[in-house]
From TrEMBL:
<dbReference type="InterPro" id="IPR029061">
    <property type="entry name" value="THDP-binding"/>
</dbReference>
<dbReference type="InterPro" id="IPR019790">
    <property type="entry name" value="Xul5P/Fru6P_PKetolase_CS"/>
</dbReference>
<comment type="similarity">
    <text>Belongs to the XFP family.</text>
</comment>
<dbReference type="InterPro" id="IPR005593">
    <property type="entry name" value="Xul5P/Fru6P_PKetolase"/>
</dbReference>
<dbReference type="InterPro" id="IPR018969">
    <property type="entry name" value="Xul5P/Fru6P_PKetolase_C"/>
</dbReference>
<dbReference type="Pfam" id="PF09364">
    <property type="entry name" value="XFP_N"/>
</dbReference>
<dbReference type="InterPro" id="IPR018970">
    <property type="entry name" value="Xul5P/Fru6P_PKetolase_N"/>
</dbReference>
<keyword id="KW-0456">Lyase</keyword>
<feature type="domain" description="Xylulose 5-phosphate/Fructose 6-phosphate phosphoketolase C-terminal">
    <location>
        <begin position="600"/>
        <end position="802"/>
    </location>
</feature>
<dbReference type="InterPro" id="IPR009014">
    <property type="entry name" value="Transketo_C/PFOR_II"/>
</dbReference>
<feature type="domain" description="Xylulose 5-phosphate/Fructose 6-phosphate phosphoketolase N-terminal">
    <location>
        <begin position="35"/>
        <end position="392"/>
    </location>
</feature>
<keyword id="KW-0786">Thiamine pyrophosphate</keyword>
<dbReference type="Pfam" id="PF03894">
    <property type="entry name" value="XFP"/>
</dbReference>
<dbReference type="Pfam" id="PF09363">
    <property type="entry name" value="XFP_C"/>
</dbReference>
<protein>
    <recommendedName>
        <fullName>Phosphoketolase</fullName>
    </recommendedName>
</protein>
<dbReference type="InterPro" id="IPR019789">
    <property type="entry name" value="Xul5P/Fru6P_PKetolase_ThDP_BS"/>
</dbReference>
Length: 806
């Protein structure tokens, strides 16, 4: 079966076996909100927007169909998704009307991201497009430019993105609209985000978990999300799960989640139905908020959800070539795919577009007065011009970290030290900073942020953390944490996402989608900066010897390295003071994706706070204390990038001083990974002369011979190879890193298995040094053999005793 077989359009779900009594839990409301004038205006707005959306998919000229459509009037490539557009226009029209009636402060988040024609049409009608894109004026010329320029090179793409005014969600990958919406309303008590969740998107795992997100919303301090589940029944070629569920099943599902479901499905009176339902939902939201803000919160409040049932591709042609179009998957994209070449399809297109009576609702290419009457008069209330969506960033107050540094020469957990600092950050920013964590804060030794009620958890269904102003959202879904963080960040605040290293990859594609949004935002003239997306990656593979192979995966580093260089930042601070400096920097930074990688176990504090400050500013430095003669005239350069692998480099240098005193070693630590790329490849990339100063030159210009460089890297070696590609003299570079070897074992054995141990580093140093130092060369084979013998003896001891090193 190549596609869904249909016996009728808009097929109803089969009846379930759930008792009818469950329907008593769905909400019924009187449908009498709209006056006759409002009703007429909403219908006209819908006709205008539906017309523009459909015309955008097909037409390049004759944009008001004032004459018969000719082949030359139709675009060469027909791109776009019609199926979701009528439902999105319906929601937009009613949200506009209720804003006009009540001055509601609202954003619209659209899950069906390929419904861009609908949203762009509504933005043009409310004159928000022209505000940010002056060529789309609200007149015949601007309308023609919009219709002609959709989904063609240089025009708007087929999905909602950062170029779409009012948007805070990249409408490509499905699943995240709901969690983004909940993040957006946090700490914005007057904001209501209307979130449209498509029934295709509703099948995704991230959406399934995000329904629980309201349990982390304190109605005393935050706004509310009004979810509208748009059940039009079809994906691209198959029915949806929700479309095959009857009202009893959907009622049971959403009541179980904790919502009050209201079905909006009376197609013959859909406008009164939706208007009354939205007014009821807002009244419920205000009731819950009023109770919480008066000191008598409703325990486990049941928030409203609207379930909107309308036909897929509503108002398009009924059938084509004997196949159903409206009310079927065939209206998902382009209902008339051969309209340019097929006279019959072209005739049907003409009739379809004329059915909206564009001359009535768009006389001379401008919205009629009736259409304009439901659009908010004040620009600040228009959905496309909300400051929260494009100009809301407020820098947070980051305490001076250096005052909280730790003593050089001690052993400290980077995460414990950072946790105490983050506790200060939360107190300094009680309404603009949050931590979104997949239930790992204690395990990751960041639990100092939980010491005080007003900096602790914000789980409203737990009496221990309810209504206490907690700044921490802990939910085991990485997807939900990521979506909330995105919504919180894009509406002007700052957040942090700490996680086990191995599981950050779960949100890899979400992070990429976000970076695409920010990349495009940079290319507009009107989107203002936002805080950075900050990841704190710990419980790393190097010290996951107790959890085993499944918990050993540093691949997220590579995911960030693949982003646009102007956006990507990766830091591997070597000790607690360097980590403090890095966290403070990232929390102040704007418009980046910051990844900080470090250990939660106690490790040496190599640098004083002042030394750490200088080291982090530079991104890398020669560690003279671990080098021969302060690193002067080295035979070999040993580079540590990461906490544990740097420890092994320093241990190797100490071993070499004892075993091969004639070998001159320079130890370098890199904390900012991005400095290593070729000159000009990244804003932080070292100039060639600075590279040579750290790692030595290629030996040709200074006549001193080629000094070999060995990198001991926390991540996958292939990442570092790719980053270094383009630097001169790479034939003198060797790299070791995580080799995808591991198990439940000891920390040293993890180093041994992945060739990042002190012994492997020492052997590499001898091999490299022997090529430039004859005194080393003469004993090189003997010393390498002895060093690797020590490695084998240590491994035998570990396996015999279950711990330690010999």
């Amino acid at each position: 079966m190549p596609a869904q077989l249909l016996s009728q359009p808009n097929p109803p779900p089969d009846p379930s076996h759930i008792p009818d009594s469950i329907l008593s839990l769905r909400v019924d409301v009187p449908k009498n909100v709209l006056s006759s004038n409002e009703l007429d205006s909403i219908r006209r707005f819908r006709r205008a927007a539906d017309y523009i959306a459909a015309a955008m998919i097909f037409l390049k000229s004759n944009t008001l169909v004032e004459e018969p459509i000719k082949p030359d009037d139709i675009k060469h490539r027909l791109l776009g998704h019609w199926g979701t557009c009528p439902g999105l226009v319906l929601v937009y029209a009613h949200l506009n009307a209720i804003i006009t009636r009540t001055n509601l402060n609202s954003l619209l988040v659209v899950g069906p991201g390929h419904g861009a024609p609908a949203i762009l049409a509504c933005l043009w009608l409310e004159n928000s497009l022209a505000t940010f894109w002056p060529k789309y004026t609200r007149d015949r010329q601007g309308l023609s430019a919009l219709i002609r320029g959709f989904s063609v090179p240089g025009g708007f793409p087929s999905h909602i993105n950062a170029e779409t005014p009012g948007s805070i969600h990249e409408g490509g990958e499905l699943g995240y609209a709901l969690s983004v919406s909940f993040g957006a309303v946090m700490d914005k008590p007057d904001l209501v985000v209307c979130c449209v969740v498509g029934d295709g998107e509703a099948e995704s795992g991230p959406t399934a978990t995000a329904w629980h997100a309201y349990k982390y919303i304190d109605p005393a301090e935050s706004g509310a999300v009004l979810p509208i589940v748009h059940v039009n029944g079809f994906k691209i070629s198959e029915r949806t799960i929700y479309g095959c569920m009857d009202d009893k099943e959907l009622t049971a599902l959403f009541v179980g989640y904790g919502y009050q479901p209201r079905f909006v499905e009376e197609l013959n009176d859909i406008d009164q139905d939706l208007a009354s339902s939205m007014q009821w939902a807002l009244d419920e939201i205000h009731k819950i908020q009023k109770a919480a803000r008066s000191g008598n919160p409703i325990v486990k409040p049941r928030w409203p959800v609207l379930i909107l049932r309308t036909p897929k591709g509503w108002s398009t042609i009924k059938s084509l070539h004997g196949e159903y179009i409206e009310g079927s998957f065939r209206s998902h994209q382009v209902p008339l795919p051969e309209a340019k070449n097929d006279p019959e399809e072209r005739k049907m297109l003409q009739a379809w577009l004329e059915s909206y009576k564009p001359s009535e609702v768009l006389p001379n290419g401008e919205p009629s007065e009736e259409v304009l009457s439901i659009i908010p008069k004040e620009d600040k209330l228009k959905l496309g011009q909300k400051k929260e969506a494009y100009a809301a960033y407020e820098p947070i107050d980051v305490p001076a970290w250096i005052d909280h540094g730790v003593k050089k020469g001690t052993q400290e957990s980077c995460m414990k030290v950072v946790g105490k600092f983050l506790n200060l950050v939360t107190h300094s920013n009680p309404t603009s900073f949050r931590i979104f964590s997949p239930d790992e804060l204690v395990s990751n030794k960041l639990d100092a942020v939980l010491e005080d009620a007003d900096s602790g958890r914000n789980f409203q269904w737990d009496p221990a953390s309810r209504a206490k102003g907690g700044r921490v959202i802990e939910i085991l879904s990485e997807h939900t944490c990521q979506g909330m963080l995105q919504g919180y960040t894009l509406t002007g605040r700052t957040g942090l996402f700490p996680s086990y290293e191995a599981f950050l990859g779960i949100v890899h594609t979400m992070m990429v989608q976000y970076s695409k949004f920010v990349k495009m935002a940079h290319e507009t003239t009107w989107r203002q900066p936002v805080g950075s997306l900050n990841y704190l990656e710990t419980s790393t593979w190097a010290r996951q010897e107790h959890n085993g192979f499944s918990h050993q995966n540093p691949a997220f580093i590579g995911a960030v390295l693949d982003l646009k260089p102007s956006l990507a930042r990766v830091y591997l601070p070597p000790d607690a003071n360097c980590f403090l400096s890095t966290v403070a920097h990232c929390l102040r930074a704007k418009d980046y994706v910051n990844l900080m990688v470090g250990s939660k176990q106690p490790t040496p504090v190599w640098l004083s706070p002042e030394e750490a400050d200088r080291h982090c500013i530079a991104g890398a430095s020669i560690w003279k204390f671990a080098s021969t003669d302060d690193g002067l005239e080295p035979d070999v350069v040993l580079v540590g990038i990461g906490v544990e692998v740097t420890f092994e480099v320093i241990a190797a240098a100490a071993l070499l001083r004892k075993l091969v005193p004639q070998l001159r070693v320079r130890v370098v630590n890199v904390t900012d990974l991005m400095i290593l790329g070729p000159q000009g490849s990244h804003p932080h990339a070292l100039e060639d002369t600075d590279w040579d100063a750290l790692f030595t030159g290629d030996g040709e210009s200074d006549g001193k011979g080629r000094r070999y460089i060995h990198f001991n890297y926390h991540g996958y070696p292939v990442e570092l190879k790719g980053l270094l590609f383009g630097r001169q003299g790479l034939e003198r570079v060797t790299i070791e890193g995580y080799r995808e070897e591991g198990t439940t074992t000891t920390a040293l054995d993890m180093m041994l298995q992945n060739h990042t141990s002190r012994y492997h580093v020492a052997a590499a140093a001898i091999r490299g040094g022997a090529k430039v130092n004859k005194k080393v060369e003469v004993d090189a084979h003997e010393m390498i053999s002895y060093v690797m013998h020590l490695a084998q003896k240590d491994r035998e001891y570990i396996y015999a005793n279950g711990a330690g090193e010999s």
